[in-house]
Every structure is written in C-alpha cells, then in structure tokens.
Amino acid sequence: MTDTTRAEDLVARLCGGIRHRRMYFSSHPEVQASARVIALGLRAFLDETGREFFFLGLAQGRLVHDGRLLVGSTLLGRRLVEFLERLRCGGLLFRAGIEDSDVLALFDVAAGLGAPTAGLEESRALLRAAGVRRIELSPPYEDAGWLGQFLYDREESGGRLEKPEADDLVPVYQSLFDTVDVAHSRAAAGRSLDVDHARSVVEGLLAAARGGFTDILRLVRYPDYDTYTVGHSVRVALLAVLVGNRLGCESSFLTELGAAGLMHDVGKAKIPEEILYKQGPLTPDERRIVSQHPCLGAQILLEHRNAGPLAVASAFGHHLRHDRRGYPQTEAWAATSRVTALVQVCDVFEAITAVRPYKGAQPPRRAYELMVADAGAYDPGALRAFVSAMGLYPPGSRVALATGERAVVLAAGRAIDRPTLRLSHAAGGEEIPEVDRPTIDLGAPESATLSIASLLVD
After folding, report:
1. Which of 44, 152, 169, 259 is 20 to 30 Å from 184 by CA-CA measure?
2. CA 177, CA 158: separation in Å to the nearest integer?
3. pTM above 0.90?
4. Contact indicator for 401, 430 with CB cutoff of 8 Å
5. What's the rounded Cα separation, in Å, for the pair 179 and 347?
6. How far is CA 372 from CA 166, 350, 351, in A?
7. 357 upstream amide cis, omega within 30 of 0
8. What DSSP assignment string belongs to 109-124?
C-alpha cells in the first residue's frame, strides 16, 4: 500500500468512524471497532517505516498528504473536511504510539462539535479535554507554522501543491456527488427534490466528457466507507451514461439516463441508517425493510411533476430481475424498461467491483463471471451492451503490460480484452511526461505482440 493509498484509506475510515459515533454511543462495538482499526493501522505503518508521525493536512479546502492533493478523499470525505474546518486547523498529525482511546476521543469531539470554534487554541484545548493525547492539530495551511511544511517545501514549489490527475474535472464530479447527497438529505426530511438540477449537472458531465470518459471514470475508484450509498449512485449514473454514449444515444436521452442513475437509490433515504450502514448480515426483518427502498424511491419521485418516467422506472425497477424475480413484486403483464434493465446491470456491477466497509473490490472479470452465472437475472441485451462498452478493463483503469510498462485504459476495443491504452510508465518504472505518452490500440495489427498482464489496483 502506497503512502497516498494509506492516506485515502485513513480518510475513509475516519469518516466511517465519525458517522458511527454520530449514530451510536462511544462504547458501541461499531465505534470501538472503527477506532481500533485506525489506531492499529497507523501504529503498524509507523513501526514499519520508523517514522514518528503521519500527517493528514487540509489545504485550500482539500485534504492533502505529502504535498499531494487527495482528490477522491476530499470529494468523498467531506465529513472529515467539515470537521477540520470547524476546528479551524490545517490537519491532523498522528504520533507514534497512538492508542484506540485517542481515536475514540477524536470521534467524541467530532460528534459533538456543531459550530466552528473561536480558533486553533480553543480547538486544541477541546481535544485535550476530551482525552486526545497522540493526535495534534496543525495551524492552518496559510500560516507559517503549518505542520505539513516539514514534508513539503512550499518555497521551492512556489506555494503550489502538486496538481493531481484530472484535477480540472473535480468540480464536475463534486456537483454530481452534491446533487445526490442533497437529494437524499431532502428526501429523508420529506422535502421536495430538484430533479431539474440533476439534469443540469448531467449536462455539465456530458460537456466535460466530450474528449472521453476516461478521466472522469478514474475519479470513481476511491473507497468511500462514509457515504458509499451516495458514491454508488454517482458511479451508477456514470456507468449508465458511458454505455448509452457508446450505443450512440442522443444527448437529451443521456441527460435523462444520467439523472435516473443519480436518483435510482433515493428511496434509501427513508431507510434507518443503523440498517443501511450495518456491517454484519441483515436479519430477515432488516432485509424486508431494505427491500422497500425501490417503492419508496418511486413514490418520492412521483410526488414531483418534473421527475421523468425514466427516473421513476429506474428507482422502482433496479432490483427487478429479467425473469421477474427480485423485488418489488409485480404483475406478469407489467413491462420492464430497457433503461431500468441497464441501470440494474450498472447497479450490480458497481456493487461487485467497488470497495465497501464489509468487502474488498472484485475485478471486472469476476463481476462478469458472477453476473453471467446468475441465469435469468439480467436482460441479455443490456448485459451485452454493458460488457461491450466496458470491456474486461473499464475506461480509466490502470493496467500493467507484459512488457513491464504501465498504462491507463482509454476505451474498450472490439475484443473485450484488447482496449485502447495510453502509456504512463516505462518498463523500468519511470513515469512518462504527459506530452510524450503514446496511445496504443491493442486491437490493431501492429499491437499483436502486446498484451495486458494485470489490472492494477490502488
């Protein structure tokens, strides 16, 4: 695990712990387990590396580690960003020897802090009073005393943090995430939804993706243990639009398709969080409650005249199987929309291939094996279109070639295992400058001797 990946994992687990603490009391097993995993992971890393601390910074409203902006963690770790902003600090420094009690005390502060403090000193006093001993608050990034400067020379870089990949697309992804987050929050409170806004952000996505969906899809690989229901909906929408675009659908239809993907799980806003975010197996009663979310979502959308039929159908039918099993139960004469069938495929593929608190990610090949083996579950045309658009190596994936070179997948090819790539690293591991990165079509005759050795996972 790289330092950056470790930082992203820490953010995800901190957000998950804060969520659990806001739902449960401090001694609850879920809260205790979150603190234990975080402290154990940090101690192991610091022991292995011989370092005295691990710093997770906040700079310019974004999370940062070792001079690099953590794009995905900032998008999906908004709960942590908001907490640090309320503390008026520039990040957290975790010292060697950190204990579960330090993390638990930090959770307690996060759960109880509703308004910003008067300043850094008040925040530090708040942590001390809570019993935090081995986690320190950094001065803000703008201050000369920002702790991150020990790891990052701001003078040498002109004060600029290293710009991450696809940074220009962050506002697009943020708008998608915010749209789903706000919709779920409003639905939970019984307030009206702005479905037209969902359409407008999808239009922004289509405009940004005119050069291809590769960079946008690279942003969706991040784990989001905190708000994975929201992140899941964003990824489902992106996958559905990618497939629709590959099929040659008009932009007006893609807009409706994307909005349907964003809203397909809005019914989960009515499911109690202690059930929705439970990490263990659900009881029969809990499964019954969760299975109500398609009907609840359709009802929520039907209450809004600007909700299109594709959004309502997708919310209602994304757990309906092609053989009419699944839920909710319907009459035999009820027709199933092809759009609903596609959203169902995207929904299941995302669930299998994404990281969750209770499981790791499965590779696309394994997802296809499971889906094909589940006879009668999926509309054959929808599944075929999805596999054709995604291939074994979905756009945005990082792969290693048999030559030792590394590349980013740009688009699926006619053969599902022969995509078009852009080389990113030479065989020796050296990163290739952006302007010098060649594009390779593995389906072309001149590339016949090249092959993909493995899918790289961050």
Report:
1. 169
2. 31
3. no
4. no
5. 18
6. 33, 15, 15
7. no
8. HHHH--S--SSHHHHH
